[in-house]
Amino acid sequence: MQHxxxxxxxxxxxxxxxxxVFSSTSAFAATDSRDCDHITVSGYxxxxxxxxxxxxxxERGIGLELLKEISTQLNxxxxxxxxxxxxxxIHQLKTGETxxxxxxxxxxxxLPFFDFTIPYYDEPLYVYSRAGRKLNIKSLGDxxxxxxxxxxxxxxxxxxxxxxxxxxxxxxxxxxxxxxxMLLSDRADFHISSPITIQVYLINNDARKDIxxxxxxxxxxxxxxxxxxxxxxxxxxxxxxxxIVKRLSKTTTGS
Length: 255
Hints:
The protein is of the alpha/beta class.
């Protein structure tokens, strides 16, 4: 299964979001030049962005690779904090206890609190249902008469967000774990998520064989680095963007 866009499509996608990101960050970032000689980084795990070391493998992930490149090129050290629950990670990023989060969806509701880089990864989004239902989902229209569950605060891109806002049968839940439980008990028909995100909830519910994924993807969600607006390091956004563009350009040209 392909989890990221092709190199050309990925580059086109990030360039299309540059105005969105720069309009929310550049006005302040250019004037905030406080000293930043060390970055405190969230240790939140998000495969394939970042995973902690274990007895079999060292810490790893594409976000970690980017972080190392940032450290080398900008001559700045970093410390990755122990992982905490996601809501706690977000709170510490808002307050400035953490400078940077390696991966976060750059949605509008977060712009008052965080400065986002341009995206460097894209997650495909699928429709999930209980395997025994054998739903044949080929288009969004196939969901019109079904009961869906989504997580509070989630964003799935403009197309899916607009569709779900106008859908008559949507229940908003606090977590993806609740969504899986609703599907398993036949209290809901479908849930939208990415293969990476949903695996965590399937494992926690011991339901990997009980939930089916649609054959086609219905959208993609951009993933970017986020810096706290209260961090003295937020002015690094432009420099980090330059590094991301060069990385993706190398991927595109094959060099």
